[in-house]
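Let us practice reading a record.
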Amino acid sequence: QASPLDYTQELHDVPEGVFYRYPLIPVHGVPLMQPIATSWERIEKFEARPDDLLIATYPKAGTTWMQEIIDSIMNEGEVEKTSRAPTHVRSPFLEICSPPPVPSG
């Protein structure tokens, strides 16, 4: 089993340009990744319908679990309905939009 130091070295050995980190752009004083920041106007104009349910969680604190639990409750526990599509399709993120395509190669 590789040690954390081996993994870190592996990352340093990856050729330049394999990983890409989006630049941060401040929106109302908060640094956001470029694909989110460039869509912020659309996000701010979002208007929920009366039957929409907004799930707000802290990052890395069980968001996917919460989405699955809410979907299960709303579908009265019917597994067929809760497995009809991937979680991100059944419960999309308001602030995350599709980034521009990454060039292949």
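A brief commentary: The radius of gyration is 19 Å.
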